[in-house]
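Our consortium's second objective concerns turning raw sequence data into structural hypotheses that experimental partners can test. To show how far this objective has progressed, the report includes one record in full. It was chosen at random from the queue rather than selected for favorable results. The single chain below, 390 residues long, was entered without modification.
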Amino acid sequence: MSTVALRRFSNPDTLRHIGDRYLIELLSPHRDFFANRGLDLPATPTAGPVDCARLADIFMMPDTDMPPELADSLYYIHEMSLKDTMDKLIEVADQKHIDLDLPPDAEPADVAVRFWLKDDRLLQEIHAEQHLTRPKSFLYFSTFVNPVPVFNIPNRETLAAMEVAMDDWFESKKRGRGCKVFAYPRENECWFMVRHGETCRREGSLNQGQPGSVFYRPQKHDILVYDIAEGEIRIHAGSKKERELYLRCFGLNIFGSEHFFPPGGIFTLRPLIQDREASLSTEGVEDSIEWILLKELEFVIGIPGNNNKETEIHKAKNLFAVFQNRNFQLPANTRTKKAVFSFKFRDSKTPRSVTIEPSNKAKYERDYDSDVVKKWMTLRGFINEEAIGE
């Protein structure tokens, strides 16, 4: 866990609003740590108030020897102490019949502390869910199994087995243990969040005016989305080896085969060469897409194996119109590397960009654009079996 700037816990007024009862319950397992920092926690709320000014000072300058369990709890509570997340926590508490015992003037940090004390695992799941809509770049992998087998949402035991297998790999790659897998079923899809450590970092620091260093392991969140009907998984992860790990682990634990998801891709840009403007037709998706333009194209000219191939990049508001005006033809031995499209969706006043890189990378400005774009790609031939291994 990286060092956390505990701004919300560095304000004595915020700490007082949380209340002695909940502060004592949260911090009591770490009495020795606070005693060494000059703060004696009351045994009970009736034994006297918590010295919130001293506690704020401690959180203002957290030492590197803070107990990991305390650092974890403060990190998640800090992350969830926002107005938007406060509303989410209260909503989930109502759904799960969790009594947070909130006062009428409850503040975000107050709610987060009480929720953590009631169900810390659930708060971590809600925190992880906040990351699901952030990534916009995915690599796609499809199963060759036909018909696509029935998908059952993995239970906690299955997720735990996946975590053990992933921990062995992460530890072998110097990323530490303690990864967690969260599942979020949605209509026609199941989203997964994999939280794990990165390689350790060392940064310079000042402690009471003395130079030193802080050694810590950053936290990372990877996203996997399984399309239940298509048997396709899309992955947002940092490295090729991590993606291969997820393909093996999810395939084995959910479908019984680590080869369920072959590592090859599914995208091709050949329709741009073969069909030109016709490849941008919105026929079949006109209810969702008003028009499509090609605004960037990157391709390689040269024979495979040639170590001195030429790369060209063309950009314009409407590339096909530019090509037509100057009678430009793409060379016969062109290999397309990337295309950027401008999509005018009917639900938006302004166009949005979509980037496709063969053979398995697609990038969207909005994650929810992926469904209709994928349908268009299938209709126009940007997705087909020939794309595998392109």
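The partners drew two points from this record. The radius of gyration is 26 Å. The CA atoms of residues 150 and 302 lie 45 Å apart. Both points have been shared with the crystallography group to help prioritize constructs.
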